[in-house]
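Q: Hi! First time doing this. I have a protein sequence and I read that you can turn it into a structure. Is that right? Here it is:
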Amino acid sequence: MYPQAYRYSKDHEWVRDEEDTVVVGITDFAQSELGDVVYVELPEVGTAFDADDEVGTIESVKAVAEVYTPIEGEIVEVNEALEGDPEIVNSDPHGEGWLFRLRPSSPGLADQLMTAEAYEAFIQHED
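A: Yes, that's right. Below is the predicted 3D structure, encoded as structure tokens:
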């Protein structure tokens, strides 16, 4: 269910390596816990963050959840499609529902996050 090539955080974000950047989104588990997403607040391009910094929020009909950056780096792009169509986060959380692209402050930072297997074991304890 969770893409094997991605890495995962305890805050339910996923990270996908793409050359010199990583793509970040929330997991299927996170979007299902939130329910229907109605608004996504994303970080500003050019802003640098430390690992685990709050970078935005996702609002649903049930709750507001903070979005954290799982690794240190600079925001280089945000998913502008979410501005007019935030429910993409629900329908395709591991694909078109990505949140932002980040240029890591050093290579290999994503390798410190959980594998898909470790994340699946982690969420079994969350239920």
